[in-house]
Amino acid sequence: MKKLTAYNADVQKYMHQNCLSTQKKYEIINTMRKRMGNTNQSFESLFPSRSK
Hints:
By secondary structure, the protein is mainly alpha-helical. About 40% of the residues lie in helices and about 10% in strands. It has one domain.
């Protein structure tokens, strides 16, 4: 299974000139939180330190 992070193309495809639409941003974040909750992983693990 591919690890989903905030830097994946799946998330970045919603970006437009480095700005996310607020509604899309919250949809993405809520979906990520739900999926992480279902897999018993931490939401913060999506944003590893020292990576971009």
